[in-house]
Amino acid sequence: MSEQKRIAKELDQRVAERTRELAEANEALKKELVAERQRTEAARRASDQDSRVIVGSMPGLVAILTPAGGVDAVNDELVEYFGRTLEELQQWGTSDTVHPDDLTHVIQIFTKAIASGEPYDFEVRLRRFDGAYRWFQDRGLPRRDASGAILRWYVLHTDIDERKRTEDALRHSEASLRAIVETTPECVHVIAGDGTLLSVNAAGAAMAGASSVDLMLGRNFYDFVTPEDRERYRAFNVSVCAGQKGLLEFHIVRMDGERRHLETRAAPLRNDDGTVAQLGVARDITARKEAEARLRESERHLRQLTETIPVMLWSATPEGAIDYCNARFLEYTGFDAEQLMGSGGFTKILHPDDLDQTVQEWLSCIRTGASFRVEVRKFHAADATYRWCMANARPLLDEHGRILKWYGTVVDMHDWRQAQEELRQTQEKLAYMMRVTTMGELTASIAHEVNQPLSGIMTNAGTCLRMLAADPPDLAGASETARRTIRDANRASEVIVRLRALFSGKELTTESMDLNEATREVIALSMSELHRHRVMLRPELADDLPLVTANRVQLQQVILNLLRNASDAMVGVDDGPRQLLIRTERDEGDRVRLTVQDVGVGLEPHVIDKLFQAFYTTKSSGMGIGLSVSRSIIEKHGGRLWGEPNDGPGATFAFSIPRVPERTTGAALVMRNS
Ligand code: ADP
């Protein structure tokens, strides 16, 4: 063999050997690989088995997913929670296992995680077997092999419902707290110990005149406080930051330069970093302070007024105890406030004779709430006498009508009362004068009135004598004529009595009287005078006229005056009869009316008011006081006297008086002569 052939043969042998070796090695490797795979698979199976065992016994909801996201296995707890089978759970993406509001979000995160292989973590509401949704935290972790390929996803659902709800409640309460702070009209602020404004609400910013909260934060609040209050405020802030609660009134100057009065209520607030700040609520009390100042001013003004007014003022408790007398009151009575205060204090200053009645009246007013009004004599220190005063008081009532307080005045009316008395006496004298004058003018009438019974007496006495002188004496006739004599004498005496009354200067008291009878008497007295003036008198006296309580002489004076005026007014009437009508009648409201109507000169409307003024007369010999006195007499009887022109010729004058004069209202105590 050639060398070449040998080499070629050797090469072939080597190749064949090598190839065999390779094939053997290959076969061995193959076996090795298969064995390896079998070992790995067994390990994985063992591991899966382990995982399932672990998962099954874990205290939580656990699921194992395939790399594609399909549900591979779940633990018992999870099945119990959902109350669904593994197949049903596979469909979680389309069933109601996940709360509808969370589903889209969950699918999005889940899909992304499966695609990227990144772990996921989200919060989701999951449906429990009974339909209730509870919050869970879902965390998914991929488990990979050595090559990095995902083998399984391990998913843990942790029930966080409790925490979620607590967080929600906390968030809610924080939000409402913030809303309260933001909507409160008061300034809520947090100020650090050095005065730095750490926090403030919108109302606080507005209070300081800032357009936004940001403009305020970080500034030093001390700069807003007015210089005169700054030190006080600083001390207050320091004390609050040292743990003291407090209240402070102070002034600030707002950003727009306006000065405001604030009141801060503050408490210490511990910050997270351990420092303490002032948590304060500030109110703008400028308006209140101004109102208080105005009130103080008006109180001062009122006090000045009550202390300087020249009227005695007083007040009393609802029970009637005096609790205030002004300076004028004390000066007038010479007592000091303590002596007059309390119930019964005022009795010290009353005239002993007025005491009982005043106290009775006061007690009755306190009981009924009626206004108090008495005329009473009070002690006057300056001349140590009692002077007539008018005391008035009215109750101040609450909305239920309960008495809160009595307010009263006392007015010295002594001089006025004396003047009134003098006026009354003058009027009385005037009336008397007028009466006497009128009576003087009626002498003829009066003489006739007296003469009539007197001549009757004369005639009867003569007849009586004749009858006695007859033979035999006519005793029966004589005694009859003697009786007539006595009757006439009585009549004469009655006339004299009435005349004496009319001439008397004394006012007679009121009595129950018949106005018709009084009128007839006046007519009788005036009759011959009227005849002389050719007056035709027509009396129309009502039959059913009730009695009146009045002063007879005064009313007769008025009637006399009206008759005389009517007669005077007709002096110039020559073309017809001088008719004079005198009428009495019942009037509305339990009154009686007397009317005198003539056909004389009549009245011009513009003079009607003047007629009743004193000294107004159109007569050459008139005094002009008749109507003025008559009116005051009628008014004293609670009545009214008036005059008016007739439709035809002449005038009508009339008065109307109540049957019984009303009791003077209001004044429980009438004035008595001192
Ligand atoms: P005198 O009678 O003294 O004038 P009076 O006060 O009685 O005073 O009357 C005042 C005036 O009223 C009379 O002057 C008269 O002008 C007017 N007067 C009174 N009564 C009548 C009357 N009946 N008709 C017209 N005028 C009258």
Number of helices: 18
Low-confidence stretches: 664-674
What is the averaged pLDDT score? 88
Level-1 CATH class name of the largest domain: Alpha Beta
- Derived from helix and strand composition plus strand pairing, the structural class reads alpha+beta
CATH superfamily of the largest domain: Histidine kinase-like ATPase, C-terminal domain
State the main characteristics.
binds adenosine-5'-diphosphate; 6 domains; 674 residues; 22 strands; Beta-Lactamase; 46% helix; 5-stranded antiparallel β-sheet
Notes on the protein architecture:
With 674 residues, the chain is of the alpha+beta class. It contains 18 helices and 22 strands. The chain folds into six domains: 49 residues; 108 residues, Beta-Lactamase, CATH 3.30.450; 101 residues, Beta-Lactamase, CATH 3.30.450.20; 123 residues, 2-Layer Sandwich (Beta-Lactamase), CATH 3.30.450.20; 94 residues; 164 residues, 2-Layer Sandwich (Heat Shock Protein 90). The protein is 46% helix and 24% strand. The protein has a five-stranded antiparallel beta sheet, sandwiched between helices. Strands 7-6-10-9-8 form a five-stranded antiparallel beta sheet, with helices on both faces. The protein has a five-stranded antiparallel beta sheet with strand order 12-11-15-14-13, with helices on both faces. A hairpin with a 5-residue loop joins strand 6 and strand 7. The longest helix has 54 residues. The chain is rod-shaped. The C terminus is likely disordered. The structure holds adenosine-5'-diphosphate (ADP). The site of adenosine-5'-diphosphate (ADP) has 22 residues, from helix 16, helix 18 and strand 22.
